[in-house]
């Protein structure tokens, strides 16, 4: 005789190994919330390369006479921005938080047409008369949306 298992018992049996690994790795809800908050406030520093003209002063000897004239050199320099909002990271974190809080509507996947009937598909091959659409002649082909005329 088989023993009845409740949905809760089944769910606990499936989740138990996963929860054990989470506990071993100290992956708690509090830890995840802290990481999520950090991502929601993420900042980044942008790095730019710029060509800058630098003026080297003239070299003057002890007697005050110019030994070498002043020079202007083109130098490539790395410039760091001030910390900016990391918008891509923040956007992904916001989406994750909204998914966790069930703020998105459920995804709708239809396997039938708008009238509730199965979607008809017309198969085209060498000779259309040898390959009728499934469901007999009542099945309608899928409209070709690339054609501008209906």
Folded structure, characterized:
The chain is α+β, with helices and mostly antiparallel strands. The protein folds into two domains: 13-109, no CATH class; 110-141, no CATH class. It is built from three helices and six strands, in the order ααββββββα. It has helices spanning 7-24, 29-40, 87-100, and strands at residues 43-44, 47-56, 59-60, 66-68, 71-80, 84-85. A two-stranded antiparallel ribbon has the order 1-6. The chain has a two-stranded antiparallel ribbon with strand order 2-5. Helix 2 runs antiparallel to helix 3. The mean pLDDT is 79.
Strand content: 15-25%
What's the main sheet like? 2 strands, antiparallel
Helix content: 25-40%
Which value, in Å, is the CA radius of gyration?
A: 34 Å
The end-to-end distance, rounded to whole angstroms, is: 62 Å
Residue-averaged pLDDT, rounded?
Answer: 79
Oligomer: single chain
Topology pattern, helix = H, strand = E: HHEEEEEEH
Given the helix and strand composition, which structural class is it? alpha+beta
Query: How many structural domains can be distinguished in the coordinates?
Result: 2
Task: Give the uncertain stretches in residue-range form.
Answer: none
Q: Give the strand order of the largest sheet, numbering strands 1, 2, ... along the chain.
A: 1-6
Number of helices: 3
Count every beta strand, where a strand is a DSSP E run of 2 or more residues. 6
Shape: elongated
